[in-house]
Design a protein that fits this description.
The complex is a heterodimer. The longest helix of chain A is centred in the middle third of the chain and has 26 residues. Chain A is built from 13 helices and 28 strands. Chain B is mainly α. Chain B contains 21 helices and four strands. The chains are: A alpha+beta, B mainly alpha. Chains A and B meet through α7 and β18 of A and α2, α3 and α6 of B.
Chain lengths: ~575, ~425
């Protein structure tokens, strides 16, 4: 049975598998390994995922959704067509498309997957990711932290002992991880990050800048503007200055943006990079000189200002020889290989950590907090998992018959600033003299927390399942939704290429005017007609596509010119 | 922990890591979570051991050492009371007598070392003892000393609580002075900012170094302070090394004004105590040579009690188990050849002096206790019991019968349950 590794990203997703002694990324219908995490519904009610949906983001914004990973674990629903979807359901649709690609590539059914999540994903977000896997008909036992995955992909290429810092700035999330490697052991020392910092935020500040300089009305949601911002962002990674032009609400805007200006705008975001870096270095107890390599992962690290900030902070040049977009996907594939205990990997052991502190709330008048509840950490952040730790408590009141223990995740002393994972109630036996009880937290290798409480001098144990996180779906709910989602059909795989070209033509039509539009209409018409003709042979279809594609390419020239 | 890693104790990080990597195959985190946890803990302790430069001093044995191994006895702290000491020592180490050399003159004190759990239950009482510590990293050594002296004068019961508060103050992270980029401040504990001298002083008064087991749980349970900070501070302590100890002894014995001063003896013993017993004993012969050399000048001033203290410090004499005979260790005997036999006699007398005194003290103490108990029972409880017995016997027997009877039926138990 093959296990696949999936990097379910904010902007792009990848699927990979351990094949013939190395991680292999699987291309989608269009031949790309990167599948945009965009989901759309076409007019016929068919599901579109990836490039096709991304093209339609501009032409059909109502029927297309992107960036849903950012709401993972929340109850926010997105409207797509006439139905509403939870973020895990949208992710499930992406997963389904990825798995279909993999099944075609491997020529066998895929039923189990390892999915990567940002290290800083909470319990609820991890569970939502698992639920997404289940909704896509996959068995997801292992959730792996993205930086750990990046480390795996990087570490396997590395033969000698070394200490590495992985800097992963993806589309929507930011993670830093320190790891050490020796004798086939990959040991993660510490992770930190920011769940709400990524390439999308850099794009957002560009959008805000455009809106401000051109005195536009609140058009920050305008897909055309977003696309321009994205293009400016990408162009600025190689050029020092870009000229841009774009049509917003029929009006043409043009201008020039320099890299310096962009860096000035991005300063508040760059500042946010420093704190997780500092925390990781402090937590791992290492000096700056002890870091042998810095590895960049995620598309966001292509931004020169980000590289520069990392370089100056760590006083070392980051390595970038691995493709930052693919490294996490590769790592997920390696983890899949590890999971299936592949022969090539049988000596490699990975020890991961729990990146956040888990604890309960309690009062401690002794320490001067009065009746105010504070967090008592039980598993401190960056503890190597699997781990089991316990702490003794006593009821706040001598006559209490039961106590309720809140279970929290986070670093703040104040429970309100932490994420509440759940709570459990323990009845205190009336006959017991000692009313101390032990609370034990067990965090397993799959990132699942189990809480157990036991009275001192009693054999009775109380266990809890954490399920107060709002959106957590029970197995029954998942089964119901799975049926509903099964009705949503993925667009046929072999038509994907045609659909992509047509969607692209649609988008170009909206972007251009006059003569070009006419040309496009004519070309689209003839392309459709010939595709539908009875006498079409597969080779002809490919030729037709190539012709149509080169025609579109000739129109879709980059707007920007370098100065 | 070393067996789990499958290696001998070492401070070579590389070796530890290699062993850990090897054992990981056996205790794979996916197959054997519990085994892996144990292995990982062993690995972490081994790393800590290695980082502290070979860890604990007991193991580092760099000098010629022709002495037999002496069972490690808990090292005395200046403030430990006699009762406490007797409890620990009695029967366990017959060849190590009490340290009376300076203990005798310490203020009368009650034991303050209580097991941690007991303390926990008495948290509420602890409140009233809390003493404000408002000293900052800039405070001078004198200010700290004044504070400690003030506490010491209040008696030992309060001292324990003070210690508690002090640990909290020292190891709770606060906003420090060091500014990080963007105007944030580094969290730092007071302990990290203190000079080694202050820690030396703390050590003199509280003796944490030899009693980590007592202090560490407070840190962990109450303040969540990292043990690492604590150990770092302890290992920063300025300890006298063996050579310094010998020099100090030499200058001390050759200065007649110091030898005759009780306070000087006390300070000397306190400082010397900070070196582990094993290390002290390993320079025993050299120390003895110093004594022999200085004996003509200081011999007249030194008392049996002080001689006994020195003996305890350096382990010059040995008693044979099960026998009252006492003689000098071989190393010392060789040194003694040159000097007078008078010193040997004196030393053996000093030895006897302390054992005799201990026995008498023990007897006296237990006699007093028995007397008090008898007085209590005779004076208070017996008449009371007699009166109770006479007046209450009929009533009590009825109650007992009812209790037993109903207890069998079980209705009152059910009542309690509700």
């Amino acid at each position: 049975m093959t296990i696949v590794g999936i990097d379910l990203g904010t902007t792009n997703s990848l699927i990979g598998v351990w094949l013939d002694g190395e991680p292999t990324l699987i291309p989608n219908a269009l031949g790309n390994v990167l599948t945009p995490s965009v989901v759309g519904i076409d007019d016929g009610g068919e599901l579109l995922v990836g490039e096709v949906a991304k093209e339609r983001l501009i032409s059909h914004p109502e029927q297309t959704i992107s960036n849903f990973k950012r709401w993972m674990g929340t109850a926010r629903r997105a409207k797509l067509g006439d139905k509403e979807y939870l973020p895990e359901e949208l992710s499930a649709l992406v997963l389904r498309s990825l798995v279909r690609d993999a099944e075609r590539f491997l020529d066998e059914p895929v039923s189990e997957a390892v999915i990567s999540v940002p290290a800083y994903f909470s319990d609820a977000q991890r569970k939502a990711t698992k639920a997404a896997g289940q909704l896509a008909g996959l068995k997801v036992e292992r959730i792996i932290n993205e930086p750990t995955a990046a480390a795996l992909a990087y570490g396997l290429n590395q033969k000698e002992d070394c200490t590495t810092l992985i800097f992963d700035l993806g589309g929507g999330t930011f993670d830093v991880t320190m790891l050490e490697q020796f004798d086939d052991v990959i040991e993660v020392h510490a992770s930190s990050g920011d769940n709400y910092l990524g390439g999308e935020d850099f794009k957002q500040i560009l959008i805000n800048h455009l809106v401000e300089t051109h005195k536009l009305e609140d058009n920050s949601k305008d897909p055309q503007l977003a696309k321009t911002a994205e293009q400016i962002k990408i162009a600025l990674t190689t050029q020092h200055e870009v000229d841009y032009q774009c049509r917003v609400n029929g009006a043409e805007i043009t201008g020039t943006l320099s890299r310096e200006k962009f860096e000035e705008l991005a300063e508040p975001l760059l500042v946010r990079i420093r704190q997780p870096l500092e925390r990781v270095i402090r937590d791992s107890g290492l000096e700056l000189d002890a870091i042998d390599h810095i590895v960049l992962a995620g598309g966001g690290t292509r931004i020169p200002a980000v590289r520069h900030t990392v370089g100056t902070l760590l006083q070392k040049l980051p390595l970038a020889h691995l493709n930052p977009d693919e490294i996490v996907g590769m790592g997920a594939a390696v983890q899949a290989g590890l999971k299936e205990r592949n022969e090539d990997l049988k000596d490699v052991v990975l020890t991961d950590i729990c990146p956040f502190t888990l604890g309960t709330e309690a009062t401690n008048s002794e320490a001067g907090f009065g009746d105010k509840a504070i967090i008592v950490p039980i598993i401190e952040r960056n503890a190597t998992i699997p781990i089991s730790r316990s702490h003794f408590f006593e009821p706040g009141h001598r006559l209490a018959r039961k106590v309720t223990i809140g279970i929290f995740q986070g670093e703040s002393l104040n429970p309100e600033n932490n994420i509440k994972l759940g709570e459990m109630t323990i009845p205190l036996g009336a006959g017991l003299k000692a009313k101390h009880f032990e609370v034990r937290f067990t965090y397993d290798i799959n990132g699942i927390l189990e809480v157990e409480a036991q009275m001192v001098g009693s054999d009775e144990k109380h266990q809890t399942v954490l399920n107060t996180s709002g959106t957590h779906m029970s197995d029954e709910e998942i089964a119901v939704r799975l049926k509903e989602l099964a009705d949503v059909k993925l667009a046929p795989w072999d038509q994907e290429k045609n659909r992509h070209l047509l969607a692209r033509a649609d988008r170009l039509y909206e972007e251009r005017t006059g003569e070009v539009r006419e040309l496009l209409t004519a070309a689209m018409g003839s392309f459709r007609q010939q595709l539908n003709s009875q006498s079409l042979r597969p080779n002809d279809a490919q030729q037709l596509r190539d012709e149509f594609k080169s025609f579109l390419d000739s129109i879709d020239q980059p707007v920007f010119s370098s100065n | 922990m070393w067996t789990l890693l499958g290696i001998d104790p070492t401070d070579d990080l590389k070796k530890i890591k290699r062993a850990y990597a090897r054992q990981l195959k056996q205790y794979h985190p996916e197959d054997d979570p519990d085994g892996f946890q144990r292995l990982h803990e062993a690995y972490q302790s081994a790393q800590l051991y290695a980082k502290q430069g070979g860890g604990y001093d007991e193991w580092d044995d760099d000098e010629e050492d022709d002495e037999e191994w002496i069972p490690a006895s808990p090292t005395l702290t200046p403030d430990m009371s006699m009762d406490e000491w007797l409890l620990r020592e009695r029967g366990e180490h017959p060849n190590v007598p009490e340290d009376e050399a300076w203990e005798e003159d310490a203020p009368p004190q009650a034991p303050y070392c209580r097991p941690f759990d007991e303390r926990w239950n008495e948290q509420e009482q602890a409140h009233e003892y809390s003493i404000a510590i408002d000293l900052t990293p800039e405070s001078s050594l004198e200010e700290w000393e004044a504070l400690f002296q003030q506490v010491a004068s209040q008696g030992i019961a309060r001292k324990g609580d003070f210690e508690h508060v002090l640990i909290g103050k020292l190891f709770t992270p606060t906003e420090g002075r060091r500014t990080l980029p963007f105007g944030r401040r580094k969290k730092i504990t007071l302990a990290e900012q203190l000079s080694p001298e202050v820690f030396n002083l703390i050590e003199q008064y509280f003796g944490w170094k030899n009693d980590e087991g007592r202090v560490a749980p407070w840190l962990e349970e109450h303040f969540g302070a990292s043990l690492r900070v604590f150990y770092n501070c302890l290992y920063r302590l300025k300890k006298p090394n063996k050579a310094e100890l010998l020099i100090a002894l030499e200058s001390f014995l050759s200065d007649s004004s110091q030898v005759s001063s009780h306070a000087a003896w006390q300070t000397f013993f306190r400082n010397a105590q900070m070196l582990e017993q094993r290390k002290r004993f390993s320079v025993g012969r050299k120390a003895f040579r110093v004594l022999v050399r200085n004996y003509p000048t200081c011999g007249m001033l030194i008392t049996l009690k002080q001689l006994n203290g020195l003996d305890r410090l350096f382990g010059w004499t040995r008693s044979v188990y099960g026998d009252d005979k006492v003689w000098l260790t071989w190393g010392c005997h060789r040194e003694l050849n040159a000097a007078s036999a008078e010193l040997e006699n004196l030393l053996i007398q000093a030895r006897d002096y302390s054992s005799a005194k201990t026995v008498i003290a023990n007897h006296r103490r237990s006699l007093v206790r028995i007397a008090i108990l008898v007085a209590l029972w005779g004076g208070v409880f017996l008449p009371f019991l007699a009166v109770t017995a006479v007046t209450l016997t009929p009533v009590a027997s009825v109650v007992i019968v009812v209790m037993v009877y109903s207890g069998r039926r079980g209705w009152w138990q059910a009542d309690v349950e509700e």
